Amino acid sequence: MPELPEVEVLRRDLESRLPKPARISRIHFFAPKLRTPLQLPTALEKASWDVLAIGRRSKFLIFETNHGILISHLGMSGYWRVEAALNLIKHDHVVLQWKSGEFWVYNDPRRFGVFEFYPSIDKVKWFSRLGPEPFTDEFMSDAVVRSMRSSGRAIKSIIMDAQVMVGVGNIYASEALFRAGINPFKSGRKVPYKKMDELRRVIRTTLLNAIKGGGSSIRDYVHAGGEKGRFQDKHLVYGREGKSCVKCGTIIQSRKCQGRSTFWCRVCQS
Ligand SMILES: [Zn+2]
Question: How far is the CA of 11 from the centre of ligand 1 (A)?
């Protein structure tokens, strides 16, 4: 499943590939639904769309258009590809046909993705309870550290809770906790303020580095052009169970935290 850095890399990639003019002459659906129904308001079914920008909120791409917004979530197995001529393959469900002659095709074998229209961003039900984005000023406020410390849950569960902050998926949670030296199973209440503040900064840096590195390439994720991300080569603990800690040489452990694989060093993280 792609995490926030992969989606941000994809966003930048797609934005750089926007045709000039950035006009979609028709949106085609080849399935009744993904995670939610694939449908447009009747008045817009045959409309052309001017794409003004491609944004992102959490792991949703946001196509800002003259009619409103189109949001795209890749779910478990979705990806976008860019084609000069349309060659439909199995599991292609959405096609953006550009006036330039290009096609942007959304493929999703497991259909957990989302592609929806909303008249404006404040109407998007998925965004109503999301916490701050890691690259905003809001993320650096005291309120974020206070909310991280207000729960007795395992710190790893807290930072993966989208209501506390968005963008920390399973891989980056293990990576950030290792870098901050905090045991993933420690209660949020027991992490001192300074340590928590450091974790918050490390989360931001870890995600930024992942974006610079092109995102992780675990499972089905590929860039719009088919190029694989490279961040997985730089994981310090994730997927390294039984191997030596890069800092101290102790064997890296693995255990489930809320059903998700969690990796840590018992010496470096307390
Ligand atoms: Zn260690």
Answer: 35
**70 DSSP β-pair partners:** 63, 117
Domain count, the chain: 2
Is 2 assigned a catalytic role?
yes
Question: Per residue in 171-213, pLDDT tens?
Answer: 889 999 999 999 999 999 999 999 999 999 999 998 998 888 7
pLDDT digits (tens, 9 = 90+) for 54-83: 999 999 999 999 999 999 999 988 999 899
Choosing from 127, 161, 182, the residue where a domain stops is 127
Please, what is the angle between helix 4-16 and helix 193-212, to 10°? Answer: 40
Torsion of CA 164, 60, 227, 5, to 10 degrees: -20
Query: Is 133 within the bounds of a domain?
Result: no
Same domain, residue pair 114 and 153:
no
Neighbours of ion ligand 1 (CB under 5 A): 245, 247-248, 250, 265, 267-268
Question: What pTM did the predictor assign?
Answer: 0.85
Residue 221 domain flag: yes
219 carries an active-site annotation: no
